[in-house]
Amino acid sequence: MRDLEDNYDHEDNENDMEYILECVLMEDDGSDEYKELRNNYNSQLTQSCKCSKGVCSDLAECPHGGAYKYSSNKSELVLKSNNSLPIFECNGSCECGINCGNRLVQNGPRRDLEIFDSPLYHSKGVRTTVNIPQGAFICEYAGELITKTESQRRIEVNDSLGYMNYVLCLKEFASEEISEVTIVDPCRRGNIGRYLNHSCQPNCQIMAVRVECPIPKIGIFASRDIHALEELCFHYGGEETRPKTGSCKICLCGSLNCSGFMPNTEM
Ligand SMILES: C[S@@+](CC[C@H](N)C(=O)[O-])C[C@H]1O[C@@H](n2cnc3c(N)ncnc32)[C@H](O)[C@@H]1O
């Protein structure tokens, strides 16, 4: 086993963080699991649209569902509330233009986000300096894409050294069975998404959004209208209600329906 201190230098690992614009692949650990992850990471979705007028709107013409997943709310695209998943955005092979209504997450984080010292969580958090409408895109949870084994190793290291954990596991379901698992760790390489805290009554939600790659981006969206200066947070367990097993950390979210513990990170 590698030395614990190899990868995790000190408690406030933020200063060592490399800022990335989108997810990157973990280092090769020689495992078959890694090879599978790398193959997926290097694969491209082949479905492209032929929506020639620059705008995707017709379901028959646009295999991505046109702009039906997002709608225009005054000045910006927002996720529709009756959204049927999964979300596939238009991509570089599509014939529509960059302004088509089916491109949102690929355009990067919204402006007017601020990293601040959150008094509630006694650590860093993210807040907005302006009002945000329900359904608006906040940012991607970008970091290293890691295998299940590597995530378990990193979580164990974090737990044993008392470090914060940034590993997030997004599970997608098909007919109530888990169909895809995407695991992202922005501890060493990440973006602003890494600073969003967990809440049992969040104002944001996470969604799987695919652009060119079969591995989805973890998109963070406003789940209700959010006022300026509110802290942004999402439920780390997604929609899932997990049994409280293993070592659980006390939840500081302070919401009325707080479960008392943060969702555990067991996969
Ligand atoms: C993704 S980071 C969030 C940003 C973090 N607060 C920071 O300063 O970098 C996740 C870590 O934040 C802390 N955290 C997030 N939500 C929390 C909550 N509801 N209760 C207690 N700690 C929380 C935990 O230490 C957790 O491991």
From TrEMBL:
A Gene Ontology molecular function term for this protein is: histone methyltransferase activity
> EC class of this enzyme?
transferase
Residues in domain SET?
Answer: 111-237
Q: Name a biological process GO annotation.
A: methylation
Q: Where in the cell is it found?
A: Chromosome
Q: Where is the Post-SET domain?
A: 247-263
The organism's superkingdom is given as Eukaryota
Q: Which residues form the Pre-SET domain?
A: 47-108
PROSITE patterns on file:
POST_SET (PS50868), PRE_SET (PS50867), SET (PS50280)
- Predominantly, its location class is nucleus
* Entry-linked Gene3D superfamilies: SET domain
Q: What are the UniProt keywords, alphabetically? A: Chromosome, Metal-binding, Methyltransferase, S-adenosyl-L-methionine, Transferase, Zinc
Q: Name one GO cellular component term.
A: nucleus
What are the EC numbers? 2.1.1.43
Q: Does the keyword Cell membrane apply?
A: no
Keyword Electron transport applies: no
> In its UniProt entry, what is this protein called?
Uncharacterized protein
